[in-house]
Amino acid sequence: MADTSLLISGGINIGNKVRLYYDSVTNEAGIQVKLTNKSGGNSVKGYIVTASDGTNRAFKNCVINSPDIIGVVAEAGIADGSECWVWMSGSICQVYYIGNTTRGYFARNLVTADGGSAGQAIAEALPSSPFATDKHFQEIGHLLESRVGAGLALTNTHFN
To answer: Where among 39, 62, 87 does a domain terminate?
Structure first.
């Protein structure tokens, strides 16, 4: 059977706050929503975020030890208080990791013992002690790409 799908690099907007997006360079694909950046600084591509507690329809960087992840920042350099595209659960997108990643590994928010900064992620084979259950509730998905050192890696996202 012939592939009759339409390949579109870029987005299909639904209004001006939601889009189905595909990037042929990074291989990111999925659903993005536009939310206000309330991280306190410019947005950082790949940072994991949670809902802002001070502004409606806004995000802030997810703090360490938090299970409340709602998305992944899609754009870098968007000023605090401005609207920014954010990847939603189920998307395949680049996430910022504090160290090496391995395809197939579990991806999660940081716990205190990991080091790193708010908004960054870590990869491990499986949630390990201590706090294996807590780590599971901070899961953000599974790695689709291996890399050496800190930086962006393609991740199939889902937020527990």
So the answer is: 87
Measured in degrees and rounded to the nearest 5, phi and psi for residue 135 equal: -65, -40
DSSP 30-99: EEEEEEEE-SSS---TT-EEEE-SSSTTEEEEPPTT-----EEE--SSPPTTSEEEEEPTT-EEEEEESS
In this structure, is residue 2 part of a structural domain?
A: no
- In tens, the pLDDT along 14-54 reads 888 999 999 989 999 999 999 999 999 999 999 999 999 99
Instruction: Tell me which residue range forms the domain holding 141.
Output: 92-157
73-99 pLDDT per residue, tens: 999 999 999 999 999 999 999 999 999
Query: What are the distances in angstroms from CA 12 to CA 33, 62, 64, 74, 155?
Result: 12, 28, 34, 15, 21
- Cβ atoms within 10 A of the Cβ of 105, count? 20
Q: Are 51 and 114 in contact (CB under 8 A)?
A: no
Tell me which residue has tokens 């360490």.
Answer: 64
Residue 81 lies in a domain: yes
Does some domain include residue 5?
Answer: no
Number of domains in the chain: 2
> Both 117 and 135 in a single domain?
yes
